[in-house]
Amino acid sequence: MNSVNAILNFFAGLSTIEATFWLFVQNVLQFVMCVLGGHTILMLFRKRTIVEPPPALSNKQILLACLCVVLNTMVAVAGWFLWKRGIIQIKMNIDCFILVDMLILLVVMDFLMYVSHRIAHFSMIFPLIHSTHHLEEHPRPLSLFVLSPMEVFGYGSLWLVVIAVYHSSWLGIVLYLLLNATFGTLGHLGVEPFPKQWLSIPLLGHLTTSTFHAQHHTNGNENFGFYTDIWDRLFGTLSKTYRELFETAASKTVLDKGL
Ligand SMILES: [Zn+2]
Ligand SMILES: [Zn+2]
């Protein structure tokens, strides 16, 4: 508790330039962890392909990913400003309610991101906001960061509004952000690390898999959810071939011959 107070007091006392520097460092670390972590899982499960491997990486993709890290930092700085002004309030408690906070943030963001993702696929809006991400027909870990600036600011603003309205504990926010990065990384592997039985596990089976989001990249009319498949099931946008494609990929061997 004291160390958390010390961290929050440290951030409260920073100038805008200092806060920008530290939030940029945090975003670069998150980027490195997602891409390196993603490639590590990709190497371990390289036999379990869902889609064809992606073509060689272009300079445009690398530039867009770097820009995304800078823009994510700007969103974080905006959040820091709102927190300093008291518009975003963070609770200090460390108790069982941190899990409630995490779950509320996860379900609320899951629903709002599903709705905004459906809207982003409207033909009038798609070329302006979301087409950049769909250049990545065969996802790779970096694809998580290949987004148009409008899309980064759109999702960033949505997140800031949610935490301005819902006063979460700091640990609830941290856990949600870790899960968000994990789901984002897993969704863009192009291979399936989840066990074959995953979809049959009660509740857990409704959390999205790598196959789930890879299918959205190959067919933009289905699988719009991010963390769960419940909104796709409710609104009839779940791919009819999701289970079959998942089980095909998850049934493949993990090990190389001779290992
Ligand atoms: Zn994607
Ligand atoms: Zn999409």
Describe what this molecule looks like in 3D.
- This protein has helices at 2-12, 16-44, 59-84, 97-120, 126-129, 149-165, 170-187, 210-218, 230-235, 242-251.
- The chain is an all-alpha fold and 259 residues long.
- The chain has one domain (2-251).
- Helix 2 (16-44) crosses helix 3 (59-84), helix 2 (16-44) crosses helix 7 (170-187) and helix 3 (59-84) runs parallel beside helix 6.
- The protein is globular and about 55 Å long.
- The N and C termini lie far apart (47 Å).
- One zinc ion binds at residues 133, 139, 143, 187-188, 213, 217.
User: How is the biggest beta sheet arranged?
Assistant: none
Bound molecules: zinc ion
Number of helical stretches of at least 4 residues: 10
From the alpha carbons, calculate the radius of gyration and give it in angstroms.
Answer: 19 Å
Overall strand count: 0
Distance linking N and C termini: 47 Å
Q: Which bin fits the share of residues in helices?
A: 55-70%
* Structural domain count: 1
Please indicate the percent range of residues in DSSP E strands (runs of 2 or more): under 5%
User: Class by helix and strand content?
Assistant: mainly alpha
Mean pLDDT: 93
Spans of at least 5 consecutive residues whose pLDDT stays below 50 are none
Helix and strand run:
HHHHHHHHHH
- What gross morphology would you assign? globular
